[in-house]
Amino acid sequence: MASVHRVSFTQRFKMYWVRHLQQALASLGELWRTPLSSMLSIAVIGVCLSMPAALQLAYKNVQRLTDSIQSNSQISLYLQQSVTEKEAKAWQLELSSEGGVADTQFVHRDQGLDQLQQRAGFGSVLSLLEDNPLPHVIVVQLASSWQSADKAEQLLSQLAQAPWVEQAKLDLEWLERLDALRAMFSQSALFLIVLLVAAVVLIISNTLRLNILSRRDEIEVMKLLGASSRFIQRPFLYTGFWIGLTGGLLAWVLCNLMLFWCEYALSQLGLAFGQQLTLLGQSAQEFLLLMISALGVSLLASWWSVRRNIRLIEPK
Amino acid sequence: MASVHRVSFTQRFKMYWVRHLQQALASLGELWRTPLSSMLSIAVIGVCLSMPAALQLAYKNVQRLTDSIQSNSQISLYLQQSVTEKEAKAWQLELSSEGGVADTQFVHRDQGLDQLQQRAGFGSVLSLLEDNPLPHVIVVQLASSWQSADKAEQLLSQLAQAPWVEQAKLDLEWLERLDALRAMFSQSALFLIVLLVAAVVLIISNTLRLNILSRRDEIEVMKLLGASSRFIQRPFLYTGFWIGLTGGLLAWVLCNLMLFWCEYALSQLGLAFGQQLTLLGQSAQEFLLLMISALGVSLLASWWSVRRNIRLIEPK
Amino acid sequence: MIRFEQVSKVYPGSHRALQKVSFNLEQGQMAFLTGHSGAGKSTLLKLITAIERPSDGQVFIGNRDISRIKASQVPYLRRQIGVIFQDYKLLNDKTVFDNVALPLIIDGYGLSDITKRVHAALDKVGLHDKARFLPLELSGGEQQRVGIARAVVNKPALLIADEPTGNLDQELSLEIMRLFEQFNQVGVTVLIASHDLNLIQERGYPCLVLKQGQLAHNGLLREQL
Amino acid sequence: MIRFEQVSKVYPGSHRALQKVSFNLEQGQMAFLTGHSGAGKSTLLKLITAIERPSDGQVFIGNRDISRIKASQVPYLRRQIGVIFQDYKLLNDKTVFDNVALPLIIDGYGLSDITKRVHAALDKVGLHDKARFLPLELSGGEQQRVGIARAVVNKPALLIADEPTGNLDQELSLEIMRLFEQFNQVGVTVLIASHDLNLIQERGYPCLVLKQGQLAHNGLLREQL
Ligand SMILES: Nc1ncnc2c1ncn2[C@@H]1O[C@H](COP(=O)(O)OP(=O)(O)OP(=O)(O)O)[C@@H](O)[C@H]1O
Ligand SMILES: Nc1ncnc2c1ncn2[C@@H]1O[C@H](COP(=O)(O)OP(=O)(O)OP(=O)(O)O)[C@@H](O)[C@H]1O
Ligand SMILES: [Mg+2]
Ligand SMILES: [Mg+2]
């Protein structure tokens, strides 16, 4: 059976792409025509996507912070009172080459007293002392590979056995607390990210579902006129694409606003603490990752929802 | 002009309420028939409402924490070395009756040394001392009305002038930092709450808009058959009511889950810090407030959206 | 009952759909409205139910000028008129029963009343056994009859029908006409738009003939089309 | 072109809408399909366009058995058939032009081709000046003619019409019939469901008569109803 006139293949191929472009622009126009509803979807998706991005940034910054704290984690060796400065410095040299030791620092007993005096409330008290009661101290900086709680403790007990050492101290609790905090943070962040991505999927697929339902008649007629499912699906997929794209961009903007706000807040806090804190921003790769995942998630969600819902509409 | 048969007024009145009930149940059934979409709206609204509730809880807990810290804010008076225990205790009595002073505590110099020894790293060092270099200390607890930074400072300088006092110390910076933190927290919380409530309004009104659009034909026919706008609006308003109610309940559940999680996290952290922390939960009034605002916001949003969108649908 | 006085209707961006149409239909009368496709029949009927407002002139329904009726009054007007629409306007997700019950529900009838009246109306159009069907499960003619049942279930004082037999075969058309006549006999005013000249000419009812928006004839029809 | 072999159709929860219907319509033939309301006319046409599947028997369109056609093949089948629906099935938010252009867009025609063909089709049904209107701004008969224009714009080899003149007056009906005859003369197979016996009897075309789902007559019609 053949129709009276048919379209040539090249014509059909050309028109395929023309239609693609038309449908892409039309679905953009459609979003534009119902600004409230589309802005809402985009806003919700932007907010939902900005959270994982913000969490990732936060994680990055916390990581850096804990790294810098951990890389500051050190063992203080309080030497015997009898140890002279010379002996101490000689031993310091020896120590430097030992495994797990990144750096060593010699603190003279007088320097130690100065530091102690600067601590709150002791200044005037300690200045009343005639003799310096403090010993020399060697501060051992741990190598980065030795900064886990176990390994640090191992090194500690090893160093404590040295004959020069009166007492060896490691702020181990801090390490443990930090590890606990970090694990908790990354766990809850992961949980939140999974939740939020699920929300994005649900919201996009629901938006498209309602979109499809409100154009039920049109889809029915298109099917009656012989439009293939793919042809009918395309405008909705483009809608999903645009929502994903703009939602991703919005997420990026929001994320940077949050960063900006946090930096301001930190700078205010920093003033009170007399310290200057800066934050790491989003790298180009991370921006790209955000956009790709926004698009990927929204296209997948759209595809799933559109296929499912268009299949349900059958002409009667 | 009169119809051939008309309905009596009492009949009409009775049926008015019967219809009300029917429409309320029907719109609940409607939500049940499209579980995905309604669960989604409810979930989004629940999440959005849970945040302000959680923030309020957090604020309450932070408030309590800062209160307890502030109420612990104290001035330490380091007495002259020459002051004896007896003299000091006499003066302590005098101080107690002074304005701005809530409580005083005498710390013996030996007690002070013990405390100092417990601080990290000084234990063994100070035990080497022959003489206790520390003076007696009187700790002055500030009255709650004197705990602002200005007033505390005023009291400090006043006490510092006393002849027995070698040095007076107030941890003023802490107070300032806490104030800054608290202001920042409440500011951003307010901002977030406004944003989230706006999101709830938008989401509910959009949900109802799409709901109305997908029943456009039905509304048109109802109008043609002489249904009043109020009659047509009612099922949608009930939908808004149910969404608000369930969304509010969900928010409450989520809020308590968060509280539970935070308590667990704090208890874990507390283990590391060797302290036991508890959190304040939601009071019955706060639960009621949450439900009322959830219902209020959703009913207002529904009413606005429904009126606006139903008016736009006119039979042709 | 229905009185048009120099009524014109101009749709935006269109020519005049109705031009200075005047006529009077007494209470309890029955009349036909005919004319070519696009002559303005549906427009005239839409003016009666306030779906459209006249651009000029006045429309009286039962001595009340509805040409500038307030929007809040429109529902009360419509509840007193039974309308059969050219495109049925049934709710596709409600059963035939629920569709026919709609005007009664809107008017606040009791449940037992509703059941009784709906079944009576469905009986009259021969669809008693289809009460539990959805409109899309019915044939075109059956859907049209559901629309007719819905229009008469409320026993309105005024019945308006737009092409009520367009999808019905001759036998059924005659039956429906007889139904309208029965209503007319108990005092209901009936106005029927139709292009089915056979149906109109056989009966002795007056006929309004529209030609391009103008009233070309008002009275008995004897082959003047 | 169309061949039914012992086709039955039972709708779920309903009696048999079609019972063992067999007939054959040669390529290039024109035929009518008639019967009472609910006799199964629309059902028969829905089987041809695979909107419904037969419960039993086989339906051949151009030597191809479509009774168990794959869902992915249905669009290609439908693109080769021009269908006029009983309830028009126009898109109310698209202009008349866009409605008529739809089959061409789906078939991948070029833009200039589309413009040319759509205007030609609208010309044929006398709606050239309504191209920019929305369907709801047209009278019932005009909407029906838009549906006819859309069905023929694609110049399909098979044309199927369900009650194409239900809302048209006699003159317009005759004109549309002449249009169908023109198509038939250039080789298009045409099948028209109608209850308008006047229209059918005047012409010398074969007629399928359905009675409660059964084929009661197949051939020329001479007052046997
Ligand atoms: N909403 C509208 N906007 C613009 N023009 C309209 C509108 N409704 C109808 N028209 C035009 O007004 C004229 C009269 O339309 P109407 O529906 O009254 O005709 P009719 O007599 O009912 O025809 P039919 O028998 O085909 O139903 C037509 O030309 C139509 O195109
Ligand atoms: N989807 C469906 N589900 C159940 N029953 C149906 C369905 N469609 C049609 N029917 C029934 O099948 C019978 C035949 O319907 P069909 O639409 O084929 O009639 P028709 O000959 O086109 O009538 P008309 O002239 O009134 O349009 C009717 O009794 C109808 O109620
Ligand atoms: Mg009309
Ligand atoms: Mg039919």
UniProtKB/TrEMBL annotation, chains A, B:
GO biological process per UniProt: cell division
Entries under PANTHER family matching the protein: CELL DIVISION PROTEIN FTSX (PTHR47755)
Protein name per Swiss-Prot or TrEMBL: Cell division protein FtsX
Spans through the membrane: 189-208, 241-266, 287-306
Oligomeric and partner information: Forms a membrane-associated complex with FtsE.
Any GO CC annotation of this UniProt entry: plasma membrane
Its biological purpose: Part of the ABC transporter FtsEX involved in cellular division.
Keyword Transmembrane helix: yes
Protein family (similarity comment): Belongs to the ABC-4 integral membrane protein family. FtsX subfamily.
Membrane topology (UniProt): Multi-pass membrane protein
Provenance organism: Alginatibacterium sediminis
Alphabetized UniProt keyword annotations: Cell cycle, Cell division, Cell inner membrane, Cell membrane, Membrane, Transmembrane, Transmembrane helix
Record keyword Transferase present: no
UniProt-listed Gene3D superfamilies: 3.30.70.3040
ABC3 transporter permease C-terminal domain residues: 191-308
Location (main, coarse): membrane
Ranges for domain FtsX extracellular: 74-166
Subcellular compartments: Cell inner membrane
Automatic annotation (TrEMBL), chains C, D:
One Gene Ontology term, aspect cellular component: plasma membrane
Gene3D superfamilies: P-loop containing nucleotide triphosphate hydrolases
Keyword set, alphabetical order: ATP-binding, Cell cycle, Cell division, Cell membrane, Membrane, Nucleotide-binding
Membrane-protein topology: Peripheral membrane protein
Protein's cellular compartments: Cell inner membrane; Cell membrane
InterPro entries according to UniProt: AAA+_ATPase, ABC_transporter-like_ATP-bd, ABC_transporter-like_CS, ABC_transpr_LolD-like, Cell_div_FtsE, P-loop_NTPase
SUPFAM superfamilies according to UniProt: P-loop containing nucleoside triphosphate hydrolases
Domain (ABC transporter) ranges: 2-225
Superkingdom assignment: Bacteria
Keyword Zinc: no
Family recorded in the similarity comment: Belongs to the ABC transporter superfamily.
Function in brief: Part of the ABC transporter FtsEX involved in cellular division. Important for assembly or stability of the septal ring.
Subunit structure: Homodimer. Forms a membrane-associated complex with FtsX.
Protein name as it appears in the record: Cell division ATP-binding protein FtsE
Organism: Alginatibacterium sediminis
